[in-house]
Amino acid sequence: MPDALLHLHSSREALMEATATFIAARMRASAPDRPFTLALSGGSTPAMLYRLLGTAAYDDLPWDRVHLFWGDERYVPPTDEASNTRLVHATLLDARPLPNAQVHPIPTGHGDPTQDAAQYEATLRTFFSDEGPTFDLALQGLGSDGHTASLFPDDHALCELERWALPIDAPAYMDPRLRITLTFPLLNRSRATLVLVAGASKRDILHTLLYGTAEERAPYPAAHLQAHDGVHWFADHEAHPPAHPTRT
Length: 248
Ligand code: 6PG
Fold this sequence. Notes:
Layout: E1 5-9, H1 12-29, E2 36-40, H2 47-53, E3 66-70, E4 72-74, H3 84-93, E5 103-104, H4 113-124, E6 137-140, E7 165-169, E8 178-182, H5 184-187, E9 193-197, H6 203-211, H7 214-217, E10 231-236
Parallel strand pairs: 1-10, 2-3, 2-6, 3-5, 6-9, 9-10
Antiparallel strand pairs: 4-8, 7-8
6-phosphogluconic acid (6PG) binds at residues 41-45, 71-72, 74, 84, 141-143, 147-150.
């Protein structure tokens, strides 16, 4: 990936500090007269980041105009341990409560993911049009299989050109399997995207995504992320060993 914007950090803690600093800079630089729209990823990696953003060090950010969205959701109740909504409440919003009007979780209450995905799309369409930029920042995770959000290899959702949110039946190795995900037509119009990668389990996939040929990268959904101001890859040294290891 010749134009990859790569930010490497020696530890998970340093990685999360740098990621929070990047997000803060994007918020501060955004137009003060409109919402700052942030799409959050789920999984385990961002928990430390969300806790950090809930600390006093980040009180001075323009939280009164920050709107939170989710890039994907497991199709479980918001109180379920597997819920990405629960994750964000437990790690960020409990410490930094925002008005409900600024927090836009993906609904999972209809018992029908197709209907809930359509409802979320309607919410998204009150913020974004079919033209121009969408999220100010899309925070994405990376699975060791190259998935991002809940866009998995070989899934029909990768070819979606119209809808912004889709129900997903994730591969059998994922649990839970039933999910809702945002799609590339929406995600790839973000002003900026940050892919947060930590841990040795991501080393192989990250190396392929950053240094593989176009043909080697093609099967992996994360390889197809785009953003107006670029896709920033933030990784710790476990996921991306330093080019020149420092002499110990
Ligand atoms: C999810 C996430 C997903 C996640 C990756 C990485 O709902 O699971 O949105 O895309 O970011 O699976 O997960 P980890 O951070 O747990 O490795």
